[in-house]
Amino acid sequence: MTAFTPAPQTSQARLDASLTDRPVDTEAVEWLQEAVSQEKAKTVLYLAYGSNLCNETFRGVRGIRPLSQVNVLVPSLRLTFDLAGIPYKEPCFANSALRTPDTQDYHKDRWHKGLVGVVYEVTLADYAHIIATEGGGSAYHDILVDCYVLPRSKTVPSSPDSQPFKAHTLFAPLSASSDSDLASTTGRVARPDPSYAQPSARYLKLISDGAAECSLPAEYQDYLHDIRTYTVTSTRQAIGKTVFLAIWMPIIALIFSLSRKLQDKKGRAPSWLAKLSAVVFTGMWMSYDSVFKGLFGDGERTMGDEAMRTENDGHGMSHSSRRDAEKESLLEAFAEASSEFRPSRRSTEW
């Protein structure tokens, strides 16, 4: 594994200069073409909080070379896992939402001190590449948020007392959001309960590894480690996962392959391909909701999670009894599914 040296801390002068920044139109990234050629010395302060905290993703896969970085707290935002992914494989991905008072106490919702992350100083060209690799400008809005430098401490302050600065971040609010003028136009698949899905162990590890690499406060790292991940717990789910991915992964792989081949110099895919991708993901989730979830079991949350017990659990059915019932109906369920879905080949790993 490649070892990455942390970038130097962002200077106070650069943080102060951010106060005059303005959001950019991510769907019209042409602004970068002139800016990159005429303002080569200009940089962007970019807030990362998900998998981009991890060097393996941010520097390795995306190839970004930050000029400086600083750990921050963003009181106006909160971490969510409400971006729909792929059932049974990657149920959801990290996102941010406007912070509002709530009483949720499930593992993903127990953090109430605002969004913790890292602000990277990157070149305009690198910021264009970040936008391209996060959906080519069609999946997110660019917004400016007030950030506060985190002091070196094991805990996160509830109310920061330092002076704020501005940073850009990519924001994908839900289409049914009540976040006023930030209602989504991104076309993302919106799930009925944004807090329901659990991230995969692979994806959450990228975030927790990144938090450790960036030396985020131990209190926040403990919170990340306490988040429960999605796990297949029954034979029926395992069969459902195999059938589901055999059907949909070749289609999704084709979409991503076309996106790589047809992207322009700024990494953006054609608009028709973005629309096709939205249709494919919508169809995928519709098939999960209408067929697979009922036949094979939950593909978003670990079945038997103590924090979200099923009605049967509440009436005393033990996990072992439920597994016995699943086994009894396994052959019948699989026979029904196989008569409708006959994949020609196994899926590739995501």
Automatic annotation (TrEMBL):
Segments for region (Disordered): 304-328
Enzyme Commission number: 4.3.2.9
Active-site residues annotated for this sequence: E134
Top enzyme category: lyase
Binding-site positions, substrate: Y46, L47, A48, Y49, G50, S51, Y203
Sample GO molecular function, one term: gamma-glutamylcyclotransferase activity
Alphabetized UniProt keyword annotations: Lyase, Membrane, Transmembrane, Transmembrane helix
Top-level lineage group: Eukaryota
InterPro entries found in the cross-reference section: G-Glutamylcylcotransferase (IPR017939)
Coiled coil: none
Residues spanning the membrane: 238-258
Protein name: gamma-glutamylcyclotransferase
Lineage start: Eukaryota, Fungi, Dikarya, Ascomycota, Pezizomycotina
